[in-house]
Amino acid sequence: MVCQAIRSSAQGGCFHFAQKAELVAQMMEFIRAEPPDSLRSPIRKKAMLACTYLVPLEPALEEQVRADMVHGCLQSVMAVLTEPEGDDDRQEPLYLDTMQALEDLLTSLLQRDLTPQGLQVMVEHLSPWIKSPRGHERVRALGLSACLLQHFLEHLHVSALVPFHNLGLLIGLFSPRCADLWPATRQEAVSCVHSLLYLQLGYEGFARDYRDTAVERLLVLKGGLVHSDPATLFHTCHSIAQIIAKRLPPNQLISLLLTLFEGLGDTDKNCSRAASVMINCLLKERGHLLQEKVPEIVSVLRSKLQETGEEHVRQATQNSVSLLASQHCEAVVSSLLGSPLPFDSHTCILWRALAVEPSLTAQVLELLLQKMSRDVPFKESRAFLLSSCPGRVATLLPLAATCALSEVMSVPASAPAVLELYPQLFAALLLRVSCTLGVQLPRTLQAKERRAPGLALASRNLDPCSSAAETLQVMLLRGGSEDVVQYVEREGGWESLRTSTGHEEGVARLASAMVKFAGPRLPLVMKALLGAHSSVYEVQRVTSTAFLAELLNSNVVKDLMLLESLLDNLAARQKDACASVRRLVLRGLANIASGSPDKVRAHGAQLLTSMISGLDDGDDPQSLVALEAMLGLAKLLGLVEPWDLRSVLLHVAVRIRPFFDSEKVDFRSASICLFGHLNKACHGNCEDIFLEQVIGGLVPLLLHLQDPQASVAGACKFALRMCGPNLEREDLAEAFQKHLQEGRGLHFGEFLNTTCKHLMRHFPDLLGRLVSTSLFYFKSSWEDVRAAAPMLTGFLVLHVEPEQRQQVDLEQLLTALQLLLKDPAPAVRMKAAETLGRLVKFA
């Protein structure tokens, strides 16, 4: 009564009440002494009334004292049961009076600081009760909030246009309660939103009696909230959100959204879903304003997923990121790409949310392809200071984009977008595989990979090359090419594709599978791969060339009318600085012999010119281009026009002759086999100048029948059989056919004796030349060939007529044989001794 009297007096406004704080503290002691769950006396009501009268008096209470007062009063009153205890009719009036006293106290405190910040302080005190799991506490808290807002609105005096800086935060707190389980709470929540929007209009300069059509519609919607049907509730929440979206200032949108995101974790699932509905509505209506806030929003969404595993929260965050991406696709993609690698499961959920709507998914995939392909795939880095060979370390952006592509395409709904971008995805991912061969993870990520088993990380392989290969498989599966994936798997192609040594073979297996099971897609895939022709990375040029080369191994390219363009594109790459590209070009051109043999004649001159160019390639120190040219010519010779072949026979024969004695088995085998095909191609039409090459090749072919490699010996058998008819000596040709059958054993001594007899009968003038060539092989690195060389010499001498002996430098021959007698191999010494015995004829 004293406080009331002071406040009511004429001098109350300037009265300085020195004991105010002590009196407030005493009142709070009375309030705390009351039981918090029941009303038994009017003490707390009277104490709060006293505090209400004290608040306006000077001096002002300290901030902490005010906070303790509000907290203590709320704790004392809010939890009181709504039902009166017993049948005492005085309980209900006491309850109502007590609530009124609390309302008056809060209003008096607000009146001392009638600003947006003062309002926020009061609402923050009420916030725990607004979110209380007990319905009656929520009703009271929302009721008190509505009263405070109404008081603020009624006493609002704006002298200058100032912002209502916390509008978004306050609306975000109240609006989800529009779907509360309790009807009274729902209606109070709408009242709060209604008052807040009018407060905003007041701060914008509108008169207090102004009535806004959109805001007034909230009162109509409020009446519909008495019904508890979920569909109706959420539809109403959507309508409320539309009104908020219309009247909310742009600078308040982000704070509203961030507060609503917090509401997704509300224990009341109805309110959580209402928050989701409102977020979606706001993003649709006003999302175009949020570009600069995208990173912050994406970060908050990821945090919400980490905080709770609730299904409805997961769906809400996915919907939100999808809606945001529909308006700011590049910003969302960039924000997600900035997530730490390897992506955790929560980030993967957000990536997969971008695969729901086909047009958005296509945008996302295109952006990710750009991010993956335009940045450098690796950087050179010396792992150790003393290391002479720099290692290649993956760059993060393309690696992240590759992982993101895998996540997006793992969603079944992404299929239409994958089909739309099939060629670009296929080409980019295949080239990504190639340029990450042997590329290492940065050390920081290597450490993360080792720790990964204990973390909530996605199961994707983070190794740069493996992740690219796996993403390519995901893309093929989602693009309807399951048969391609399975075929390559059966052939071991996926494993080969990941290794530097097997990569070309893996690419060939993949190309073969595409021909078999995805033929109609090849024209656009081929077009997409042609861009790699100008790639700065050799390995990408190698990969694209290997793929295109393998396509020519099938007649499907002819059916698809791709043959001409493939040949032209491969031929254009024959001048590439990379030897592997030039080699694969030749392989592809030669593949036409098996894929479209009927087209070889039409392109014979071009094909032969390319092969000859490969034979003469001087920029390949390992001669692998020449090897490929020899293999290709062997396939093509039987199919080209005779007049096209005639002009190159001699050049080819001369060019391949040095490879007969190569240390590399592939070169010996290929060159000798090609020599056989050259002979086969000119059966019955062998010019004298080529016959000279045939004769010059006899000694190497005969001696390499004893080559330690079966493939070389087999090639010699074939070549000699083909040489026979061109020597135009029937008995010699018959001997070759009889002794050198494919798959049959050879009695070398008997065969050599017979051959030398026929040679000396028909070509006695060749003795000196044959012996001289044979002497060259006395120094061969292969024991069996060294042993065969004196055998050949001995049989030639055995069957020659005496008058031909002047062709042989006997002294030179004896010296060479005497050296062989000291050879470490017993077989060589024995054959040398036998040959010395045959030289008696020369004595």
UniProtKB/TrEMBL annotation:
Residue ranges annotated for the MROH2B-like HEAT-repeats domain, each copy included: 1-112
Nucleotide-binding recorded as keyword: no
Any one GO CC term of the record: cytoplasm
Entry keyword Repeat: yes
Domain Maestro/Maestro-like HEAT-repeats as annotated: residue spans: 566-839
Residue span(s) of domain Maestro-like HEAT-repeats: 136-365
HEAT repeat ranges, renumbered to this chain: 813-843
Gene3D superfamilies tied to this protein: Leucine-rich Repeat Variant
SUPFAM superfamilies on file: ARM repeat
Keywords: Repeat
Pfam families: HEAT_Maestro, HEAT_Maestro_2, HEAT_MROH2B_C
InterPro entries in alphabetical order: ARM-like, ARM-type_fold, HEAT_Maestro, HEAT_MROH2B-like, HEAT_type_2, Maestro-like_HEAT, Maestro_heat-like_prot
Name of the protein in question: Maestro heat like repeat family member 1
Lineage: Eukaryota, Metazoa, Chordata, Craniata, Vertebrata
